[in-house]
Amino acid sequence: MSSEIIEREDGSLVLPSSADPAVAMYQAVGFRRFSVGLDVGRYTDPSALCIIKAESKPYFTGRGFEQKLTQPQYSIVYTETVKNLDYTDLVDMVVARLRKLKHWNLLCDASGMGGPVVSLFHQASVRCTGVTITAGSTITRDGSKVTCSKNLLLENLATQIENGSCVIAHDLPGRDQLLQEIAAFELTFTSAGNPVLQGGGKGHHSDTAIAAALALLGETHLAPRQMEVRKLQGFW
């Protein structure tokens, strides 16, 4: 039986069933989609965009028709930084990039100056999750609004890269710069003694790393999850 993966219009991935109901019964449905993170520049800092491709593929286990899914794999496939764009031009630029993707989710830093940018996306009828970055170590969600601690945001990125779940495309322009940004984060403490992750000091930008962390958060913490309910028969 062919193991060539079929990509459906909605971005789901399936193995061909050849109209065999026995195969369909064991079908595992994977996905291929893109998560887009936008860090809005403040003052002289540039704005940064990062696109992550997320995939989980079905495969035959070798035990009859049984299928399983590979662990989700996240690949940073595109980054871009821009300076001195007004909010309207920034939104237009991001929308132009989104039009080149089939299935995507957009997450934008809604802290400070990012708030008006999120509003512009909504006014343009562009699906956008605004993420307000705070202190602490928690994440909460209310519809399209998310509050996430900077510690959790950056630790999630560092952990996923360290364990190999998230990789940076080897031919990505700016790959070394992104790795330097991630490596430059250091643990400091507030006046209250609370630990917090900060960028690598004066002269070090962390815009692309924040955009990558936002995009990854969209997959690891905010992406929809599929739940299957099956009925067991013949058991007492």
From TrEMBL:
This is Terminase large subunit gp17-like C-terminal domain-containing protein. It comes from Defluviimonas salinarum. It comes from the Bacteria.
